[in-house]
Design goal:
Layout lengths: L1 E7 L6 H4 L2 H8 L3 E7 L12 E2 L9 E2 L1 H9 L8 E11 L2 H7 L4 E5 L5 E2 L9 E4 L9 H12 L10 H5 L17 E2 L2 E2 L9 H19 L6
Length: about 220
């Protein structure tokens, strides 16, 4: 089992993701645990604000250290947990990182909002991760993406364990084309090899098509 703790100002954003489909089943079966912590609850300010104007001036508001620090320290076992700051300045997230994180027992995800973090918050974490070169309103969507991508690698989360091993990026390539019934849809036929019953030839075809698709769509993945 793997435990996730998320520090967020908007815990309600996680409701749909955690209460449906695969993640809901994984939580029910005690394969993963997800706890949401509103770090606004740890603000000592009169109006419970967690941000303030930046020193030196500038646009926007910056998250303060105190509420996040106190929230972290309220989590049981936070010292040994792998703590991740979700930020556009982090390392680009990929399947290799997901695999590595799936070996952790306890992950803490810190979701930001507003203009950014007080720089000193970086000293609280073990790693900084970005899910892409674009800006989101906050870190909640990246946190959901990491929880989902890591959880599906936990044994028992997926009904078919082979699914995780044939996905795009799992072996460094994009996934090969997939087909299902009907065999003939508006004159577009399923490749004959897939209905041949020859599994050795099917494996060869899938490997070839995965390589072809990767070269066409993601040349950066080809080494």
């Amino acid at each position: 089992m793997i435990k996730f703790d998320c520090l967020t100002l908007f815990p309600e954003m996680f409701d749909g993701v955690l209460n449906d489909s695969i993640l809901k089943r994984a939580i029910t079966n005690n394969l993963i645990e997800v706890n949401l912590h509103n770090f606004r609850d740890f603000s000592k300010a009169k109006h419970h604000n967690v941000d303030d104007t930046p020193y030196g001036g500038g646009a926007g508001m910056v998250l303060m250290c105190g509420p996040i620090y106190d929230c972290l320290h309220s989590i049981n076992g936070f010292e040994k947990a792998h703590k991740i700051l979700l930020t556009p300045q982090g390392v680009p997230y990929n399947q290799d990182i997901a695999k590595r994180l799936s070996k952790e027992e306890h992950i803490i995800l810190i979701c930001g909002h507003y203009e950014g973090f007080d720089e000193r918050i970086r000293t609280f974490v073990d790693e900084e991760i970005s899910i892409g070169d674009y800006i989101l309103t906050g870190g909640e969507i990246p946190a959901m993406a990491i929880i989902d991508s890591v959880s599906r690698l936990i044994p028992g989360v997926l009904h078919n364990e082979d699914s995780a091993h044939t996905d795009s990026f799992e072996n460094g390539l994009l996934e090969c084309p997939q087909y299902t019934k009907p065999y003939d849809f508006m004159g577009m036929l399923v490749p004959d090899v897939l209905v041949s019953g020859n599994h050795q030839e099917i494996d060869k075809w899938r490997e070839k098509e995965a390589l072809k698709r990767t070269k066409l769509r993601r040349k950066d993945l080809i080494k």
